[in-house]
Amino acid sequence: PKLGPPMTDEPLYQEILEPRATGGDVLTIEKVLILRNTPLFRAVREEHLVFVAQHAEPVELAQDAVLFELGDLGNSMFVVATGRLRIYSGDVTFAEIGSREVVGEMAAVDPEPRSASVAAMESSLLLRISHQNLQLLMDHDPDVARGIIKVLCARLRTTGPRASVTMHAVK
Predict the structure, then answer these.
(1) How far is CA 144 from CA 22, 44, 78, 113, 151, in A?
(2) Cα–Cα distance between 94 and 106 in angstroms, integer?
(3) Which of 61, 68, 134, 171 could be cross-linked to 120 through a Cys-Cys bond (beta carbons 3.0 to 4.6 Å apart)?
(4) 118-163 pLDDT, tens per residue?
């Protein structure tokens, strides 16, 4: 039988989902739970999710630390495990994202310079997924490609008009 959506509001489940706050390693099972509860990876088959979790690198950011700058070369995406990030260019904020959201997905799909800067609004733990591992996953599981397309479309819908105005203002 197919299980329903996870009961993420239950306290025990929340405790399991929250990676340890200490600077230690994040267990593969913790990574799997984080990824499973990220819309991008929700439909991914278990064996593929475990592969991604095994290769995902934890990245810790202190408050106000910059993850990457507009124009930096990029070849990976990041899943926010805990914390909040600001996506911006100069003084213009395009979005604020939190737990179980992704950033950098465009560079993970098509390694090109970053289209915005990203900084931590609070202490944050991210999982880095490389271009190579994401490509392998997309080759074996089309649901991942569909998930990325959905994320990109949602971003374009919400930030496209503001980004367009900002780009014209810069010229």
Answers:
(1) 30, 6, 14, 22, 11
(2) 15
(3) 61
(4) 999 999 999 999 888 888 888 887 877 787 788 778 767 776 654 4
